Design the sequence.
């Protein structure tokens, strides 16, 4: 009697690859958070400012998870499960950004007003606000996708350029800030994010029939 491949027991090598993949992801996400937590720049900061800063770091980490889910690159998560995880992670990303902005608003309302009005003297503020509005707009569009009756093709045409813009703006925002993440962890996370996002976008592009 033939046995379906879906019913075959997982091999030891497959289990090892799964653990290695998830372990690598945990390390990639934990290192920037650990570097930030150990930063001496936190010594004189208010708790609400620290919360806001870490919300921003978590948001950048979640941005890396999103294309990995879209690619089906995380073992054990594929198909419908990966799509559900992608939606949940998207909601978490929006929440992290809202917390990031709200905490910074509480810390310094005038600075946030300048940033939201695109009147801030620093480029990273402008890039961050642009990324924020794009994330919120993309999240709202995802929630209204069925009501707007967006076809998969039209959704891709709207979603993929937004992904490229959000990643580019967010990386620029993070890199220009002289904050708690440290240069090497910030650049490593940003590089992985760009690579994962571009790969996901490239694989999502429609292919012309040969």
Sequence:
């Amino acid at each position: 009697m033939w046995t379906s491949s879906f019913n075959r027991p997982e091999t030891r090598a497959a289990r090892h690859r799964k653990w290695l993949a998830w372990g690598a992801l945990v390390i990639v996400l934990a290192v920037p958070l650990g570097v930030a937590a150990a930063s001496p720049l936190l010594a004189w900061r208010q708790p609400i400012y620290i919360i806001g800063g870490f919300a921003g770091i978590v948001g950048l980490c979640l941005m890396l998870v999103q294309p990995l889910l879209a690619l089906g690159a995380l073992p054990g998560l594929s198909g419908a499960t990966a799509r559900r995880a992608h939606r949940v992670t998207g909601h978490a990303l929006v929440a992290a950004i809202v917390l990031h902005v709200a905490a910074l608003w509480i810390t310094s309302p005038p600075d946030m007003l300048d940033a939201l009005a695109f009147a801030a003297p620093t480029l990273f503020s402008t890039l961050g606000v642009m990324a924020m509005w794009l994330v919120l707009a993309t999240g709202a569009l995802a929630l209204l996708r069925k009501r707007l009756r967006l076809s998969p093709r039209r959704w891709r045409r709207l979603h993929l350029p937004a992904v490229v813009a959000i990643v580019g703006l967010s990386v620029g925002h993070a890199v220009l800030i002289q904050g708690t993440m440290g240069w090497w962890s910030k650049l490593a996370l940003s590089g992985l994010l760009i690579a994962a996002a571009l790969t996901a976008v490239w694989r999502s592009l429609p292919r012309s029939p040969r």
